[in-house]
Amino acid sequence: MKILSKLFATAMLLSVASLAHADPLLCSSGAAYEGSLDESDVTWEGSDADDCYGAVDGNDSASAVGDAFGGIWEELTKADDIGDSPVTSTGSYMGVDFELTSDNGTSGDWTLSWAENTAGALPLTLDFTVGIKGADSYGLWFFDDITFASDPNTGTGTWSISWLNNGGNNPNISHFTLYVREGTTTVAEPATLGLLGLSMLGLGYARRRRTAS
Length: 213
What we know:
The chain is an alpha+beta fold. It has two domains: 1-20 and 190-213, no CATH class; 23-185, Apoptosis, Tumor Necrosis Factor Receptor Associated Protein 2, Chain A, CATH 2.60.210. Helices cover 23% and strands 38% of the residues. The protein has three helices and eleven strands; from the N terminus they run αβββαββββββββα. A five-stranded antiparallel beta sheet has the order 3-9-8-11-4, with helices on one face. The chain has a four-stranded antiparallel beta sheet with strand order 5-6-7-10, with no helix packed on it. The protein has a two-stranded antiparallel ribbon with strand order 1-2. A hairpin with a 2-residue loop joins strand 5 (87-93) and strand 6 (96-102). Helix 1 packs antiparallel against helix 3. It starts with a helix and ends with a helix. Mean pLDDT is 77; it is low at 2-25, 30-34 and 185-201.
């Protein structure tokens, strides 16, 4: 009985641990150019990103975000063809309209505002990822469980490109993209669930034996 109790306790601890948010793991993974990314390269409301990925060759996409951070993502909006002035783009998700404005160059400010288009849609908790493309590569910055409230309905951040192009310079931004998914709690791994189920079965069997005697 003591062994089964210990097994149950271990399973519970493992399942709780699996719910915790992971520490940053991916920054600078597969760096394509000299220089590396950092969580502080992109901020939201004064806070650094929870994780980042890159810089890597190619174009960012919702599937690339999923490969980096897991889950199914959707492109919310993209500020594209950025020139000498800030660019604004819009998108909608889960009954909320969003408007993104981002500056040009190698670093700058970005602003996101939002408003309900469906009554009761706010507050809304989302995970979002910022994708920044410069020259031939991009970086991704992940923000976990961000709540968008009805008041205030705007937020700001900063960003910078911290990798170098083949000429040894910070490339100018090509586009700035926001990807979103519903804010989620990590589900326990199958092995953990199996261990928990085995311990529950063992406890049930021990209880039936004790009742029978």
